């Protein structure tokens, strides 16, 4: 533990917190990073990386199941052990952050394990695992990157059951025979397909009227169709009214009176924060808010910056890292008046299901709600040359949303095989405001999935 006065204290070492802390330490500042759990945050230990390792395995299974229609026969014996082993050994080092702590210390930072809270402007009090309290004063200021925890809805009986959240699901050593997934957002959809492809009988109970409701309705419909074909039951517009666990079985009474039974239950119903516990009122902020409001340089108050999920600009690792770069530059004051400021117009997001849903910027509905003059174009992948060649597993589409007054794209979706990769070109178009006229004059390689962008642009109406 260094002296109680340092330059910067980073509370919460998620992907952005680790990054901003290391940048500042490398620049010569005296930086203390504080985390109650693991350096690196949710992403490497409980979220992106382990779930994408699962999906790498299930993508392989999905392709193997397509072999009979394309190349003879494939005899696959399901085995979860390599997936669990990869997560334990390659992704999380058995949920040990020793390497990440060392990486931060090598950059020049000091790590303190414990739960931090603001106890004054530029003051953080840390409760360490031994129950002691340490007060840190930050000359330049404090960066908050405390992320989110799984939200568990107040469903009668649920709290008394051994339900899973994402943190349990990434650590399972055995696939259950059956699984109820509460929530059909990105977490619910990705994990439902993983466990279904490994043999579990999966039911998704989704409160909203479609899956992945933050995305275009066509994306939710595409996933619902793909899931139905794989034997996943999708119940939309419903929630759980009561949950019990008896004799190794979950019994979930839905709010329409039906009952669904399963061996396990995964709660994937969104995320929550606790601004009171973080003590943001001590810095003059509203602690009844869901997060921390920041300006375009991540400033929340004098001597206080916030980055990542708590800023409400999209719960993605790439957002946390993007904001970290901007906050670091602001704290160091290196870029002066020409400093980069946050611009969220072209925020990309990818749900790594099969078909994969990549989207950027505004959906058609969001663009209309903003009062823009909207034209949309949609191209179905199965009717493209690449879709025809690809055959089984070719479902998907490219949809583009144009601000017709300015002649630029303000949003797009690329759904289908490698949708997140196809998305790259569309992110450039939205970010750089490439005129639609110019996009129509580009040469799109034949026969690729991204060539559907050309067709979608031609259909703008
Ligand atoms: C299952 C799942 C899959 C996901 N997949 C993807 C994906 O593929 N791609 C993607 O971009 N995003 C994905 N996400 C979202 C992604 O995990 C988060 O957006 C990302 O981790 C960034 O969060 P963050 O930087 O805000 O902080 P987090 O990663 O949430 O880290 C916050 C850290 O702060 C610590 N902390 C909290 N409070 C305190 C305190 N008071 N004192 C000290 N420490 C504290 C926590 O222990 C934690 O280590 C996924 C999320 C889930 C749940
Ligand atoms: N690939 C990625 O980038 C990725 C993957 C996973 C998660 N994430 C991010 O993590 C965050 C959390 O994801 P998530 O899927 O947990 O949350 P979410 O809020 O996106 O989706 C949760 C879903 O659960 C449903 N729901 C809420 N309460 C319910 C209830 N009582 N019963 C039934 N359904 C209910 C909602 O209708 C909602 O669609 C999101 O912001 C997401 O963007 C990103």
UniProtKB/TrEMBL annotation:
<keyword id="KW-0560">Oxidoreductase</keyword>
<dbReference type="InterPro" id="IPR016156">
    <property type="entry name" value="FAD/NAD-linked_Rdtase_dimer_sf"/>
</dbReference>
<feature type="domain" description="FAD/NAD(P)-binding">
    <location>
        <begin position="7"/>
        <end position="324"/>
    </location>
</feature>
<dbReference type="InterPro" id="IPR001100">
    <property type="entry name" value="Pyr_nuc-diS_OxRdtase"/>
</dbReference>
<comment type="similarity">
    <text>Belongs to the class-I pyridine nucleotide-disulfide oxidoreductase family.</text>
</comment>
<dbReference type="Pfam" id="PF02852">
    <property type="entry name" value="Pyr_redox_dim"/>
</dbReference>
<keyword id="KW-0285">Flavoprotein</keyword>
<dbReference type="GO" id="GO:0016491">
    <property type="term" value="F:oxidoreductase activity"/>
</dbReference>
<dbReference type="InterPro" id="IPR023753">
    <property type="entry name" value="FAD/NAD-binding_dom"/>
</dbReference>
<dbReference type="InterPro" id="IPR004099">
    <property type="entry name" value="Pyr_nucl-diS_OxRdtase_dimer"/>
</dbReference>
<dbReference type="Pfam" id="PF07992">
    <property type="entry name" value="Pyr_redox_2"/>
</dbReference>
<keyword id="KW-0274">FAD</keyword>
<protein>
    <submittedName>
        <fullName>Dihydrolipoyl dehydrogenase family protein</fullName>
        <ecNumber>1.-.-.-</ecNumber>
    </submittedName>
</protein>
<feature type="domain" description="Pyridine nucleotide-disulphide oxidoreductase dimerisation">
    <location>
        <begin position="347"/>
        <end position="456"/>
    </location>
</feature>
<dbReference type="InterPro" id="IPR036188">
    <property type="entry name" value="FAD/NAD-bd_sf"/>
</dbReference>
